[in-house]
Every structure is written in C-alpha cells, then in structure tokens.
Amino acid sequence: MPDILSRRAFLTRATALGCSAAASPLWSRVSFAAAPWDTRLVVIILRGGMDGLDVVRPYGAPEYAGLRAALAGGAQGGAAELDGFFGLHPALSELMPLWRKGQLGFVHAVSTPYRDKRSHFDGQDILEAGTARLQTGVHDGWLNRMLQHLPGIEARTAFALGHGEMKVLAGPATIANWAPDSDLVMSPQAERLMARVMQDDPAFHAAFSEALMLSADTSDGSGGGGSGAVQIAQFAAEQMRADTRIVSFSLNGWDTHGNQSRTLLPALKSLAATITTLHDGVGADVWDKTAVVAMTEFGRTAAINGTGGTDHGTGGVMVLAGGALRGGRVHGHWPGLAEADLYARRDLMPTGDVRAAAAWILRGASGLDRAVLEQAVFPGLDMGGDPGLML
C-alpha cells in the first residue's frame, strides 16, 4: 500500500469504506457571528465520537488500568498530569501551558440525552439542534436560536466556513459563507446518503480508520497537525479581533474503531493546533475574553475492542479553553468505572447534560436570561445549578 493516497484515490476509497459521512474527515464547516458584547465564543463540533476516556484519562480510577492498559500503554500511559486523578493525552501536551494558566479545562461524563442507538448522524443532529431528541419540524440550531433572542445583530452576524453543514448555526439568523481552498467537495445531500447507507457497517471500521490516518495530510483539515484546521483557525482569529463574537466549526476524524493508539493522533494534533492557533492569533487581550467549547456527539466504550479501538458509547468529555473560562480543573461529577457504574455495563455513565454546560457558558458570554436558554435556546432543558465554568 502506498504511504500517501492522492485526494482522488482517498475520496474513492472513503466512499467505499466509510463508517459514516458524519464521522468522515473530508468535510468541515465553520460559522461566525458578530454581536454587541465583548466575549468571544468558539463552538467546535468534534465529529465522530471523541473518546473522552482516552483524551482525559481517569488513571486514578482503580478499574482504568484493566480497561485501558493495552490501549494507553499503562494506566497513565505517558499522559500529562492534571490533578492527581486525571491525565491529558500526550498528543495534547502542547496545551499544558494553558492548563497551568487556568485557561484550559474539561467537563467529564457529559452527553446529550441521546441514548442506545449510537448513530453518528442522529447523535450530531441532536447535539447541534440542542433538543432532547430528534424532532421533526426543528430546523434551526441552538446557536442560531441564541442569536434570535439577542439585540443588535448585524447583517454579517454569521459566517459558515467549509463545505459541510453546521446545523448548530442553521436558522433564520442570516449567515455568510467562507471556505478554505479545497478540491474535495461533497454536497450535503451526498453526505446524508452516505451517512444513512454506511453508518451501520462495522465490517469496514478498521479499513476506514486506516484510510483516515493516511488521509491526514491530504484532507481539508482534520488531521496530521491540521493544516486546513489551522487555516480555518487563522481566519477565525482574524474575525474575532474585529467584530465577530461567535464562531462555530467542526473538526473530524474521531471515529476510532480500530488501532486507536494511532488513529486518534491526527485528530488530537488537529485540535491542539486549532486551539494554539486561536490563542496566538487573537492576541492576549482578546484571548482573555474568549471561551472555546469543543463537544462531541457521544463518547466511546469503556473497554477496548478486539481491534485495539473503541466502539460508540455514551458519556464523553467537553474541552474548554480561553481566558474567559475557569480552567485548570476537570469539572463534572465522576461516576466511576466499576461495571455496575457504567451505562448499560459498557459506557461511561453520563452525570451531566452537555447542553446545560453550554447554556451556562452562553449565559456568561451573552447575559441571556436563564428562562430564554431553558425554553427557547435549549427547549425543555433544566440547567441546574451554576457549575462555575465562566469567570
């Protein structure tokens, strides 16, 4: 097999082997919004189901070594020390200076209300819609609904970057579009068809993961340090230095069914490069007013599978960065990893709703009333007590 696939060859191969277009590395979209307040909010959708137990490793849990030693190379497995219980995946070690400055944090054991079917396609729809379940007639995303309840939104309120669809900012609020240079273009209709046809075909998971890894340097920004992701982050930083206050985009490549110790690396490097590019690009003054929130449609199984990967799960982790957030800690209520503590005896048990964490960040960033957040932005949500995510 050649070391590098051409873009055309990879596109052909991915079409044949893909687990789901929702988890594929080829299509990304970024959206922007300007608003009359000072905090900058960046929402990153991590498509494919990021394994929170590998990214933020609970090596202090007695069960973790038995569940993950073969994957992580030991309980802590070279992870950077966070707080004596959790460690950060080595591929994100360049973000540790932000952790030490209190500008990097995490919310563990969170998920949307989506359960059991574990479809990328449906899970991402629910995540971006901000609803409790799939609902017909709901065509806008929670960021767009937020904009609809804020005064002073201008014509250039929203920008969409990339060739995919960002449902989180879809809706009546006007958006514009920008895309980095790329000759890999797939229509939303084609993505939808691929998602429906291929998402339940486990026989090709390992082959797709291999193709994903080989595509790292030829895709439009989902891996290999993320040249395309960096380009998007650079453009985002430029806009955030001016009038833009809300940015949303996606990073792909998190579907790690096989050989996870290798296939997860490109996505992690892309995420690290994205955050550091945003940090460097906006400058210290703007970074101090910035909240970056990265979330995924679901986590992955607590135990590794027979191909050295992890399968679709439930509880996962949110990644937080920026000077406006209270970092230097892992937020959330830890449920434990004993078999009886797992969801369906296989997944990390969700103890928090990812929408509640997002709602508190929106409230801190924009000042929106809690009733608006619970009834209009995230319909039917109970935000609970303030978890203290924002400074």
Automatic annotation (TrEMBL):
Pfam families in alphabetical order: DUF1501
Transmembrane segments: none
UniProt superkingdom: Bacteria
UniProt-recorded name of the protein: Tat (Twin-arginine translocation) pathway signal sequence
Species: Pseudodonghicola xiamenensis
